[in-house]
Amino acid sequence: MTKSIEQFLIKIQSVIGSKVIMDENNKIEEIHIISDLRRNPKQILRDVEAVLMSEFDQSVDYKKISIAQVKGDLVKTERDPRIKLKSIEYGNCGTSIDITITLEKFSENYSSKISGIKTTSNVMRLAGMATLQAIENYLGIHEVFVFEDSKEVDLSTVKIIAVNITSIYHNREETYIGTAKVGTDINEAVTRATLDAVNRHILQMEII
């Protein structure tokens, strides 16, 4: 039981170590958490309580839970928390096109496929929308992000794609801006700009 609880707790965002102490009746006596600095201890505490109740049907007094936040080498060895682009696949069908975006985080893949009319601007929009849907698949949410617009701009001698993303989450509307350098595939740049916009805010979403 102790190891099972510790294994679940380590899955919580920002938690990098856990120790559970049980009493003779197999009830939790103490929980010690080590986390990085990316999240507020109160958020982590709330997540710990939720995991204990939903997975193990145990309600624990918050005073029994201690959280120590650390920085330095321990945090540096943690896996990169960002979601990254793994692949873009295209499927042409006359005047329509299929776009499949696959994202990767912690060696897990999250994909989304979208179809639409094959115009230059619409394909860019489809790439952004597919990226946002793949992110929602990772988070376990639906219809939160909206791909509003993208624009190619010249910055000195470099071409840049800027995207505008809106989210409505917990009745709060926010606008995110992301950018990426344009390489050989402008749709890939749209995807990377979308990730640039949203990656900054994913860790604030309290979803395990």
Task: Give the gist of this structure.
With 208 residues, the protein is α+β, with helices and mostly antiparallel strands. The chain is 31% helix and 40% strand.
Would you give an account of this structure?
- By secondary structure, the protein is α+β, with helices and mostly antiparallel strands.
- Helices cover 31% and strands 40% of the residues.
- It has a three-stranded mixed β-sheet with strand order 1-2-3. The chain has a three-stranded antiparallel β-sheet with strand order 4-5-6, with helices on one face.
Dominant shape: elongated
**Poorly predicted ranges:** 72-78
Order of helices and strands: HEEHEHEEEHEEEH
Number of strands: 9
- Estimate nothing, just give the exact number of structural domains: 2
List the total number of helices.
Answer: 5
Instruction: Give the strand order of the largest sheet, numbering strands 1, 2, ... along the chain.
Output: 1-2-3
Question: What kind of sheet is the major sheet?
Answer: 3 strands, mixed
Helix-strand makeup class:
alpha+beta
- Mean pLDDT figure: 85
Return Rg in Å.
21 Å
